[in-house]
Amino acid sequence: MDKIKKMLGTKLFQNGMWLFILQIFNTVVPLLTLPYITRVLGTSNYGVFSLSLNWVTYFQVIVEYGFGFTGARKVSIEGDNNLQNLYSRIISARLLLLAVSYLGMNVLAYVTHVGVQQFVSMNILFLVIIGVAFQLTWLFQGKQDMKLITIINAVSRLISVILVFLVVKTEAHLYLYCFCYSVTFIFSAVLGLALSRKKYGLKVRLCKFKEAIDEIKDGWYLFISQAMSKIFSSVGVTVLGTVAVSSIVGIYSAIYKIPYIMILFFSPVSQALYPHISVKFSESFQKGCQTVKQAAICIVGLFAIGGFLIILLRDFLISIAFGAAYTEYSNIIIPLVIWMILSITNNFLGIQFLVASGHQKEYSQAFSLSAVVTVLLNVTLGFAFGVYGVSSAAAIGEAGLTLMLILKIKKLKTKEEEKI
After folding, report:
1. Of 129, 127, 147, nearest in space to 137 by CA
2. What is the domain partition of the chain in residue ranges?
3. What are 257-269's pLDDT values in tens digits?
């Protein structure tokens, strides 16, 4: 009991809980408006919104640029030393990427001749990316001080949901819905900036152009990993859309959500551990290794048990969640659960070990190669075996990444042992 009380009182546990709450508000709360908004806007206008948001999300990855990890790592290691300079560099870098993204989005929209509704919707939804540019989760995560920023984000999400129900009433309110969706990001960014100034005395100042470029260069490998992840995450659905009827695509997309939700719940655990493990690696390589090993055994074990139960109860779960018609293909959840477990394992091998120890390049190399292999597997197995091939490709591709990361870590450990 004393050990449990001690664990509950640690900054790591409390930070993890606040990140978990933040993840719930970021993923679950927006779903509250979905049944309402699809009916009010109608299929046509909701389709315009979805397509516009999909475009904007690609540019959001550019502006985020991996600073959620690199920024948090630097804050956790450096503490208050040079914090204002780091704060200015990351915000300046994001503003530079923001300008490039806005120009790129509109040029691409012009070249592809998007409709007027989609063009206007994309520009309104670009408010999301402006909010992301000033989003400071990386700062509070590095400080392991997530309580207030979580509350700010939660309140912002709730305000957005309330606004949707209050003001979006007809199909003509497409642009109004785009604004209601975006305002939560602006609101949380403004409050986050105010909080960082009050707590840490940080002010928004632009740094020199060269410093912003250096910060972008420093986050390059993580950015490539995140960008590649965004690109190939939907390749399975794309392949199925070519080789299978729409009903099969729908079944795969629905069943895929079960293991994907498990990964979403793991995300705050990963974010909470990262700055803590980064500090351990800064103290010594051996301390970092031991911390990663202890956390991985416990957490991967728990998710593996959860995955086993999902496989065991797959027919029941799928029937309850989506309907009896979906159970015909319930077996595809087996490779998808394996993919989920391997994905969490690879987070420890890649993010928690290689990136936290300062070896972003090695992680990016392995991840990028794995992404290419996964895309090729999806295409070849998808065309050969349909939905079963696509679901298997996800697990095989992730297993390949696991092997590559293990080899990278073994090589790194050998180098560290030679130094001693």
Report:
1. 147
2. 11-218, 233-419
3. 788 778 877 877 7
Residue type, 413: K
Residue 168 Cα distances to 162, 165, 177, 403, angstroms: 10, 6, 6, 50
Q: Provide the pLDDT for residue 403.
A: 94
Q: Kindly tell me the sign of the dihedral angle through the C-alpha atoms of 347, 348, 353, 354.
A: negative
Q: How many CB atoms lie within 10 A of CB 418?
A: 7
The torsion region of residue 56 among left (phi > 0), alpha (psi -120 to 50) and beta comes to alpha
d(C-alpha 152, C-alpha 15), whole Å? 15
Q: CA neighbours within 13 Å on the CB side: how many for 250?
A: 9
**What digits encode the pLDDT tens for the residues 221-256?**
667 766 666 665 666 666 776 776 656 765 776 677
pTM over 0.70: no
Residue with tokens 């040079």: 82
CA distance 216 to 103: 18
Give the pair of three-digit tokens for residue 372. Answer: 């290419």
Q: Residue 230 has which token pair?
A: 């965004």
* Confidence check: pLDDT of 38 > 80: no
Provide φ and ψ at 358, rounded to 5°: 90, 20
* CA pair distance 197, 31, nearest whole angstrom: 32
Coil, strand, or helix at residue 112? Answer: coil
The Cα–Cα gap between 349 and 288 comes to 12
Element containing residue 144 per DSSP (H, E): none
Whole-angstrom Cα distance, residue 76 to residue 123? 36
The H or E element spanning position 284 is none
| Amino acid at residue number 122 | M
Structure confidence at residue 246 (pLDDT):
57
Mean pLDDT across 388-412: 91
